[in-house]
Design goal:
One of its GO terms (cellular component) is plasma membrane. It contains eleven helices and ten strands. By secondary structure, it is an alpha/beta fold.
Amino acid sequence: MIAVSGIHKHFGGFRAVDGATLNIATGSITGLIGPNGAGKTTLFNVIAGTLAPTSGRIEMDGEDITGLAPHELFHKGLLRTFQIAHEFGSLSVRENLMMVPPAQSGERLWSAWFHRARIAREEEALLRKADEVLEFLTIDHLKDERAGNLSGGQKKLLELGRTMMVDAKIVFLDEVGAGVNRTLLGTIGDAIQRLNKERGYTFCMIEHDMDFIGRLCDPVIVMAEGQVMAQGRIDEIKANEQVIEAYLGTGLKNKAVAGAP
């Protein structure tokens, strides 16, 4: 689905992404891990159109999408979430979802004057869709709560719900587990797996929680110093000497040696 070829992103003399090449297969949940400063979020920002690459090429289903703006990628079904959730705090949880679909009739002054019945029908359909999404995510009891009052984990679920209000093909999740308690993290993981298996979503996720990555992701891609270091199943990644030295730490290596027969 996504093919990233030789992507560079430089900030002056600093090479945040330095020739990264990777593929994200349709229907996969791909994990992206690496030490802080490896270039993971910068690469996400380049793919999602927030930053223009210095050089390189990005394709989605064979189409060149290099340098397209986020709103253009949104219409192609490429969405992303952020490490810090971006909700509309003064609106209710349900209203946050209902704002997502583009080109609503109520946004146009002419329609607001002369097509009130159409607007009412659209709003009713959006309301039903929002309630269906909230039920899917098991947070329907919060539908009338102000989004700003939600916990960190509930806000991450709301962000995931916003991707469900449109026809998302691939969703990039930036540290969806950051600051989330274990119970809610389990709920988020369940929702990601269900969206993948039942609705055909493709995911790529940055995450530092290796247990969470191991539960959800295959393959796992490792970045270091702006480049792709390794790719494979989580067990292969954990056994990779290069990855252990650069990211997982010598403690894991020593533990494995100590536990060997």
